[in-house]
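Homework help thread (please don't just give me the answer)

Our assignment gives two proteins as sequence + structure token strings and asks us to describe the second one. The first is just a warm-up. Here they are:
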Amino acid sequence: MDSRLLDLLVCPICKGPLQYDRAAQELLCPRDRLAFPIRDGIAVMLVEQARETQGAAAAADTPGAAP
């Protein structure tokens, strides 16, 4: 993924920066704990297509954790 493009893309929910996971071909939002897929070199920035990362389940089980 082009680093210039990565600098422009933000999470569609929180508008925060994304991290590129080259091995999984995903863009990660650490704040929302979502992973957006990259298919055929194109980032799919649809919330419906994102998957929750492992930390999301743990945070949901923690009392007082942010949604």
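The one we have to describe:
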Amino acid sequence: MIEVTERRFPSSDGKHQLYCRVYLPAGEIKGLFHIVHGMIEHIGRYDRLMRFMAENGWVCYGFDNLGHGRTAKDGSELGYIGGHQYLLADVRRFTAAMKEEFGQALPCVLMGHSMGSFIVRCTFTSKLWDKLIIMGTGGPNPAAKPGILLINFIIRRKGERYVSPAIERLMFGTYNSHFDEEDAHAWLSSIKENRDLYHSDRYCAFHFCASSMSDLLRMLIFCNRPDWFRSPELNVPILLLSGSEDPVGNYGKGVRQVYDGLVKNGKNAVIKLYQDARHEVLNDFCAEDVHQDILAFVNA
């Protein structure tokens, strides 16, 4: 029987206590597995994967990022990060604490989904982690730098916490155009029940403010720079996972760009695209296959 504990951990911003979940195996510990969630969601949505990993011997843990879930002090803080540098530092600090608690010699894996994929790509260091899983990521976007200029203009006029419908349309307005369903989040999953769960989740029913949109784009730019692909920190096994119908990954093209960039620079990368799956492969018809592919990768 696994044990699930909730705890608080001080954020690097000096203002917040991160809401954390730690899933402990019943028997021998094989390693440590850190999950970083995506934009406008929370770590509780990864419960099935976290339980699965713990049942297979891995201490699995993660937290609600700044501006998300129970880390936010109240609803007014949802969607406000306060600086992407804190997201990166929090990931490093929490894994360091877990290694201190459970053992420095244990194998340690870092996984990030969607915005979390940009966070882990920006923060990964082989000094802390032995393997990297990049899920639901995106490749270079030529609109990112002009987007930051537009956001900065809006921030000067409206303030950093302003929620801009124009920015939302610019960044996500085309995501549903590929699908027939009349659903604002059809791009997330092909399973309507899973989309309904997302709609009804109070920690998924908010908007990113202007400064947080800027944080997102800055991470996207950084982790798609040529020197990122050359980094010696990435000389570890890397697994890229995505749905073939994921607009964030440009329907597989952007994910392959990331994969090709890694392989071109001599990295040990493997890619798996789940045919017909959408953005949230953990909440689509392929979820069990994803679980098994992750387990095989970490155990190899």
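TA reply:
I won't write it for you, but here's a hint about the kind of observation we're looking for: The chain has a mean pLDDT of 97.
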